[in-house]
């Protein structure tokens, strides 16, 4: 059943078309949908076995009373164990044709940029830059997407208490290239932040793509609330397996035309939501698939070049569950037949996947909501071995008990045990970019 999305769900700085939400129907006949429960039928549940298991207050008190969290690291220790690098802004802006129309940091100035989209090896390239925790800048086909952005010191309702950031964001929001789309996987404080949303809305006026329930709670006028500043933001809500196509016609600095469509699909994962004592699972949670399709017109006799689609996946926050197999089946159909061609294998996998690897200890409490590195490798395998997987959800805040540098060390060991190729599943430094 078709339903209209927000009428203004398009990029203001680009010539584009309004988008509509529709049901993703590629291969699955009966895609998994969340169930509802509660007195008013407004509580979301994951319907698979074990999907609704979340340790409650008693378990939380039991964990915290015996917690053995690592100490807050010194700056010298951080740089040694969780290193960061300065963002290569030339990379960020060379792949973005709208670099001259940017946030307030550059004030829309005539900044000198490289027209990277005119280069054959860049116009259809996916580039991702790790901004910390679950936040990435994903760039492809001239479109810039920011995932789960949190640009504050503490992942907490207040900024004087709660988990304190030990690695700062590698770049200020206002110094980013034009952000066209922001996706938010769920409402926990390490993934959704009011002041960050406000800054993004003010600087770029992007489209926010969020799970069901988030728009009505956090993007509507609420007298006296810090969220009221975001009530005019462009927001699209998605249920699991709903998708929204965003279409753009982009003029590069060299006056070439790039027509792009990014279709964003909400996918099921195993997690939960809450921001207060009274809203457990009143909002949905999800992962996202980004399908970039584009064609380039160079204004010559060569006509229009149709570029192959590129697929990226962001798992949000999740425990291990059967939904990664379902996600692969929806986008790529049944399992590959034995002896499938290399072209078939290339088409039947994601180009890029961003998968959590941290915040997993102790397992008796966190196994039902967060994967550990071994399970992260299994997620990679369930997704049919993306061309590149990047670890996330680690190295930013002390949320759990494992040492701050343990997740990438265990990931490397588990990847070797699973027989992954070198560089198939990697971690980035804060601020580091990788292109594929």
UniProtKB/TrEMBL annotation:
<protein>
    <recommendedName>
        <fullName>Metallo-beta-lactamase domain-containing protein</fullName>
    </recommendedName>
</protein>
<dbReference type="Pfam" id="PF12706">
    <property type="entry name" value="Lactamase_B_2"/>
</dbReference>
<feature type="domain" description="Metallo-beta-lactamase">
    <location>
        <begin position="144"/>
        <end position="394"/>
    </location>
</feature>
<dbReference type="GO" id="GO:0005737">
    <property type="term" value="C:cytoplasm"/>
</dbReference>
<dbReference type="InterPro" id="IPR036866">
    <property type="entry name" value="RibonucZ/Hydroxyglut_hydro"/>
</dbReference>
<dbReference type="InterPro" id="IPR001279">
    <property type="entry name" value="Metallo-B-lactamas"/>
</dbReference>
